[in-house]
Amino acid sequence: MVAFDEMTGSGAELRPAYDALDRWLKEAPPEMLALRRSQAELFFRRIGITFAVYGDEESTERLIPFDIIPRVLTKPEWTKLEAGLRQRVTALNMFLADVYGPKECLKAGIIPPDLVYRNACYQLEMVDFKVPHGIYCHIAGIDIVRVDADTFYVLEDNARTPSGVSYMMENREVMLRLFPELFAMHRVAPVDNYPDQLLATLRSVAPRSAPSDPTICLLTPGQFNSAFYEHSFLADKLGIELVEGSDLLVKDDVVYMRTTQGPKRVDVIYRRIDDDFIDPLVFRGDSVLGVPGLIGAYKAGNVTLANAVGTGVADDKAVYSYMPEIVKFFTGEEPILKNVPTFRCREPEANAYVLDNLDKLVVKEVNGSGGYGMLVGPHANKAQIETFRRKLKASPEGFIAQPTLALSTCPTFVASGVAPRHVDLRPYVLSGANGISCVPGGLTRVALKEGSLVVNSSQGGGTKDTWVLDA
Amino acid sequence: MRIRISHSISYDYAEPARHITQILRLTPRDHDGQHVMSWRIEPNIDGRMRSSQDAHGNIVHSFYADGPISALSIKIDGLIETVDLAGVVRGGIERVPSEVYRRDTLLTTPDEALRGFALEATSQADTPLSRMHALMDALHTEIACVDASGRIGIGAAAAFAAREGIAQDIAHVFMTCARQLGMPARYVSGYVAQSDTLPHANGAHAWAEVYFDDYGWIGFDPANGLCPIDTHVRVAAGLDFADAAPVRGARKGGDGENLAVLVSARETDSRLVNQ
Amino acid sequence: MRNINGGIPAGLSPDAPRLVTKRPELTMLSRTADSLYWVSRYVERAEYLARILDATMRLTNLPSAYGGAGTEWQSAVSTAGCEETFAKVYGEANERNVCDFLTFNPDNASSIRNCFALARSNARAVRTALTSEMWDALNGAWLELQRFEKKRMDREELARFLDWVKNVSLVFDGSAYRTMLRDDGYWFSRLGVYVERADNTARILDVKYHVLLPANEQVGGSLDYFQWTTILREVSALTAYHWVYREAVKPLLIADLLILNRRMPRSLAACYENISRFLDHLGDAYGRQGPAQRQARKTLANLNNTRIDDIFEHGLHEFISDFITENNRLGGTIIEQYLQ
């Protein structure tokens, strides 16, 4: 399987967007690249991860490797991607408003009702509740992979609490510092307005009863959460308080934060705590991270939660396979971004095909996450395949299957020099009462091991700066 | 049957609480089998009480009180008129489709033992209704129900493994098995009037309801081994105990909590009540 | 189907809320203030422990004819305020046990190691409220501490370690002074320093008051001389003493220096001058005075209006005990008023 390369396309011909970068790379001595890479690492230790952990006994966090060679997208590529992202996120929000409201898409048979009703992410508390300004998914991270010059697939929608945006911003920051000459050669669209856009989005969705200058805070599970660094980074950039559950207090259905001047009313909460842990009086009672009474205040209309509770039903793997139909039903348009072809094993024909081709497919458990309950056919041994065959026969509705994809590659500075490595892309899409916005680019993740398709940071993945060229 | 219920839930705290929030599902609604003639919930301290409905249609009171609070007592007094409909629950409020109640929850997560038991117990039955009766009968003999007040539920799988549990656990075991057999099942908390014929009729009680395409919701009380009759007063329903719990609370301060619960549910003479 | 605001670019929507440009009022999360307060307290406490150990080592180095009753190490534990825990962990109060207990012992909640650990974990939780200089000082110290922990602690190494601890405190304090915004965060952090420092100075006096009493004062070449100078060393005031009084070391004057002399930065009076000042800043900024301000002013007035002779006349021990109680009460009031 020959993957499409971002720099050289399918053959050896240089794609125009990479012209200047290619010339520069050819002139750059490897020692210089190595030096800049170690400078980048130093920079990350200082500004970024410094306070997350290093030297900490209870810590398991590390620096996520950063690759100094940027991934470049042209303006036309981005324009198309952005249109697709806006369409997709619009549909996600309309889908959520529908399943928690009139349920037209279920009545129309667009998606089997049991996928929604039996889904643990379909939060009953949200049924018939009108969220402020009708928006559920304020911050979405859509994982995109590319397979050829024109085809981008959505690999996964992240509609709950997508993370990684701080890497997008700091990757750019470090590139600007280390390679000013490259930025002189390219017109790269900026990303540093993301915090302003996020703040504007959060302000726009304050409850109507809130003052014109609403109080916003970011709710974190605390310093031992793996994304705590990002939480404090964002709170800092947005100029809002970073609060833990114990800093908030709900009284008479109003949320307050405990300040040195007494309780201060909170209007919007950018929460980075999962639904299950957000209010021990409604969800898991053993949660000490959440805020007792928060859901009561939310449902009384006194506070906005971003993202809304219950958005998980939209990014579920089983629902994912229906996204093309969902996009079409709600927007009336053909989906601009394709889904990865997906076999729903709940459909007998599809399941029969999957069972015959287990060695070629990736089989995923519908409710699994983090790579558990996943079979990568081409890399699996006989026993693993047989285990999945049994599982698929016993409960086919619990699985989907997809072909293994040839993710595009991008030149990457590795031990052996500059070599192609597989990448994906996570752009961040903001939806508020002020419209939809999306900073150009996003976070490019790269599988640093040769041939590996796993871009996940826990399994040897790194990140790159992502450039959208303005001209 | 006319049933008088009085229920008091009292907390005291070694260290006074600075703030208390409680979510109360302690108010029954009408349906064909029961009529609420009067119902009062009264906390003995000042606070704000707001009434709303949850996803299942339960009446929920949110109670907020500021401290220092060294003791809190909530008193419930009510009078209910019931009729025996052999467990059929009709004419109530249904806000979510029955399909929702096929979900597994933390307290009703099946294991191999429960799956096996569900299949074995119902292997001879040929209709959904007879399967559920077979399941209830089998459970009634298989698991011992203990009436230890103050004991906390341990979830379906653990209770089944121990072959012993409180009414809540047994309801969870029943629901878990029913869901394994493809039936929507839900948890019900309520009261059972004192009775000479029922082994577990000590006031507060828990049972389950199963949805049948042909009949709608029907109650099953596996702890007593029968479908709820006119002794049963239905208060709240949900996916499991946590979803329908009479009280869920949180507080700031208030270390050293001590809880005392008194419940009585008795048949009452209608003439006395009408005076 | 309604399209949810699709296509309207950010900021162009007619009913987008107008951004109000005004300086936000001064306020902070109670937890942040609480952490800043405790970071400072723990750093200050670590330095204090180092001083106690340093001074005690010196005292026990003297030939026995000059020393006290051989209870110096027990007295060091008392001064550190952790007799109970010590008694549980160790039998005898000797140099090895006490040094281990007060430096690296993980079971002692206020060993130097745990003070640094607590300071750092508080700092980490509110990382963005600290300046990077303050964070670097603490985080660097934590890493360095682990290096020390692995070493065998002989007297020389211990002395090096104690010097290093004092230095960490200086660097942290200096970074706070030089880099923090002068707002409520800074004031809470300063309050932590001075409430802790007042407690420390008072504890030294509480344990050692008996050597300062007139009954123990012998004319000429007193054996207690070395006990007295130890007290001064514990608050690094031996030189200051001579500058202030230009006299031989006398118990009455030592007490005066440590309790009432506002020129002496570790005296109770100086601590309360600062506590009161920073509480006033908070009161002004927040537009509200509370019990903490009133309590601090009362204690300060008391220190300003008392002469050392009066204190000795009414009982040094009672005075110090009362002070410790009052200072603890103020700590509690500050927490209640601002930090919960």
Automatic annotation (TrEMBL), chain A:
A Pfam family the protein falls into: CP_ATPgrasp_2
Annotated Circularly permuted ATP-grasp type domain residues: 70-447
SUPFAM superfamilies named in the record: Glutathione synthetase ATP-binding domain-like (SSF56059)
InterPro entries the record matches: ATP-dep_Glu-Cys_Ligase-2, CP_ATPgrasp_2, UCP005522
PANTHER family: BLR5612 PROTEIN (PTHR34595), SLL1039 PROTEIN (PTHR34595:SF7)
Protein name: Uncharacterized conserved protein, circularly permuted ATPgrasp superfamily
UniProt source species: Bosea lathyri
From TrEMBL, chain B:
One MF annotation (Gene Ontology) recorded for this entry: peptidase activity
SMART domains noted in UniProt: TGc
Cross-referenced InterPro entries: Bac_transglu_N, Papain-like_cys_pep_sf, Transglutaminase-like
Residue ranges of domain Transglutaminase-like in the record: 159-224
Keywords: Hydrolase, Protease
UniProt entry tagged with the keyword Hydrolase: yes
One record GO biological process: proteolysis
Pfam families xrefs: Bact_transglu_N, Transglut_core
Protein name from the UniProt record: Transglutaminase-like enzyme, putative cysteine protease
From TrEMBL, chain C:
Domain of life: Bacteria
Record-linked Pfam families: Alpha-E (PF04168)
InterPro entries, sorted: ATP-dep_Glu-Cys_Ligase-2, DUF403
Domain DUF403: 28-339
Protein name per its UniProtKB record: Uncharacterized conserved protein, Alpha-E superfamily
Species for this entry: Bosea lathyri
